[in-house]
Amino acid sequence: KVAIKGIERELICPACKELFTHPLILPCQHNVCHKCVKEILFAFEDSFADGGSESSNQSSPRIRFSASSMDRIDRMNRSGRKRNSLTPRSTLFPCPSCQRDIDLGERGINGLFRNFTLETIVERYRQAARAAIAIMCDFCKPPPQESTKSCMDCSASYCNECFKIHHPWGTVKAQHEYVGPTTNFRPKILMCPEHEMERVNMYCEICRRPVCHLCKLGGGHANHRVTTMSTAYKTLKEKLSKDIEYLISKESQVKAHITQLDLLLKETECNSERAKQEASQSFEKLYCVLEEKKSAALRAIETSKNIRLEKLQTQVEEYQGLLENNGLVGYAQEVLKETDPSCFVQTAKQLHVRIQKATESLKSFRPAAETTFEDFVVDTAKQEDILGDLSFHSNGLEIPEINEEQSRMYNRALISWECPGKTDSADIYVLEYHKLNKEEESVTWQKTEVCGKSKVLSDLDDDSSYAFRVRGYKGSICSPWSREVIMRTPPAPVFSFLFDDKCGYNNEHLQLNPRRTSVESRAGFPLLLGSERLQVGCFTTLDYIIGDTGIAKGKHFWAFNVEAYSYLVKVGVVPSSKIQKLFHNTPDVISPRYEQDSGHDSGSEDAFFDSSQPCTLVTLGMKKFFIPATAAAPKDPASRILPLPSCLGICLDCDRGRVGFYDAGRMKCLYECEVDCSGLMYPAFALMGGAAVHLEETVTANDREYHDDI
């Protein structure tokens, strides 16, 4: 038999850390006191209402949330999940044992079973712990006598005399079940918590809980596989008995493991002390180096101070000699009293030279030494950064890598990273970034802590390059920094708009998605009908579409993607004054009368073609970007054809009257030209044949959660 004292660990509630009192069985099969379940739910609701603040966790002194539980509260708050009272439509309960959020269903606490078996074991443990304390009779007149038996039907304890009085022979009470003295009274029949008048007589194998026949007929277990209670009792008891017998048979192996664990405990203690000693020695070495550098710096400053003081003191003495009846002047005055010419000349020549030098020094006074010690300023900025990064490095913690394909620079910066082994071995990540500036000598990294593997940044400057790096932390251990990745922000603030489905939109040739962020031109039956104009020497025209928002002033940037299969796409800007001409008098760009190659190289056709356009556009198609033929463009046509970037951008500067076309992935300008911005300017697109354009979606704070889910 197992001693009752040896199982105390199994009888402790994980919430209050005390012996179980009326334990309830959670759906995760863990046990919690009935009172603790209520307190946890109340405290959890309060924490939810206050956004997971620490002050909201003070209502119950028995319950303390762990850091992981508070993190779950914060995540649920961010995701918008809400809770109500103890019996809401769906009650979530944070299990203190498995740290998971358990759904208690519609009935909440009322749908949980009371664990009477565990309650009986706890009571036996309490009786063993207080064997010297007797249970008194509940019906004796004072002073009460020690009880000899307890009635399970009456839920009371009796001495021999009181039991005979309250359970007379020949009455119904005489048939009551009685046991030894106890304070643990449980019902003889286990009732269903959902159907309170029905006793449980079946066991649901899916939910692993007892149910009644109403639960099976029309309740939540209607389609579940159930078995009789006797069968479940026999099966579970056999399994439990076999498992216990197996563990008992492996007692020697368990003892060997315990011995090994004891050795590991001692080894851990020794290794930790050795690690502390090595860390202390490493810091002592740093202290020694700093002390040596400090002493050398102080000695250099002291030496320089003494030299400068000596020079300045000598200069002071020299100037004091220039005072009347003092020093050099006094000596010269005495020399002037000499009457012998030969003796005077002999002495006065050298004296005159000294007097002249003193006179010149008065005219251009200059201290003999500098008073500032700017040359002795110790620059420790780099060393402080290095010391700030001083931590334990582990080869077991993987170095994260910034994923440049998933990272984006648009209205905000979305920086994503991953571990090469595809395992999330770090508990938290630190993302650092700084703006690249050639004028700044020292680099100041901005730091942010991230729980996931991506971060949205919104405080970056336009038209600037930034360096990013990331490292992982697991406790006090950190990985080395990842490779630095340089990304550039858009040249101007991002301009948001949608495709206009009203102004000039041709729904026969173009198709918009419901969100109006994508437009597609299909080379279908309408295009074949339009090609009948070939008989009169005219091809089909472009189908135009514009943005639904105009720009009046300032500098703006927008980006979009052109499908690789697109045959012909034109992108650019159009002034509001020429929108009507764009849609109602569209030039036939590939008809014979606009054929640019007429057989001579005068360039007059190009000039006439450009001047006839109502808007400023560049041509894309067949995975190519075509630089327009202008005076500044290269003469060779092949050099004007570039590979089509995966993402294109347009930057319109209304104040300067210029529009630029960018490779939005690298934020590199491919072509720039002048544009008339006298009126409202609208983004313009033209498609022909099979083609599609998708507007770049802005980066939102939800993008971080989306990538984390992926």
Keywords:
Immunoglobulin-like, single chain, alpha+beta, 710 residues, Herpes Virus-1, six-stranded mixed sheet
Secondary-structure map with pairings?
Layout (H helix, E strand, L loop, with lengths): L22 E3 L5 E3 H16 L17 H13 L12 E3 L6 E3 L9 E2 L1 H14 L19 E3 L4 E3 L1 H7 L11 E2 L22 E3 L4 E3 L1 H6 L7 E3 H21 L1 H70 L6 H9 L5 H23 L17 H8 L3 E2 L7 E2 L5 E2 L3 E6 L9 E8 L10 E5 L3 E4 L7 E10 L2 E2 L6 E4 L21 E3 L5 E4 L3 H6 L12 E4 L8 E8 L5 E8 L3 H6 L19 H9 L3 E6 L2 E3 L14 E3 L4 E6 L4 E6 L4 E7 L6 E8 L2 E5 L6 H8 L1
Parallel strand pairs: 12-20
Antiparallel strand pairs: 1-2, 1-5, 3-4, 6-7, 6-8, 9-10, 9-11, 13-15, 14-15, 15-18, 16-17, 16-19, 19-20, 19-21, 22-23, 23-34, 24-33, 25-30, 25-34, 26-27, 26-33, 27-28, 28-29, 30-31, 31-32
Structure description:
Among the domains are: 1-45 and 89-131, Herpes Virus-1, CATH 3.30.40.10; 231-389, no CATH class; 417-488, Immunoglobulins (Immunoglobulin-like), CATH 2.60.40; 492-532 and 539-585 and 613-629 and 638-709, Sandwich (Jelly Rolls), CATH 2.60.120.920. The protein is α+β, with helices and mostly antiparallel strands. The protein is flat, with a radius of gyration of 45 Å. The protein is 30% helix and 21% strand. The strands form eight sheets. A seven-stranded antiparallel sheet has the order 22-23-34-25-30-31-32, with no helix packed on it. Strands 12, 16, 17, 19, 20 and 21 form a six-stranded mixed sheet that branches. A hairpin with a 6-residue loop joins strand 3 and strand 4 (101-103). It contains 14 helices and 34 strands. Helix 8 (327-335) packs antiparallel against helix 9 (341-363).
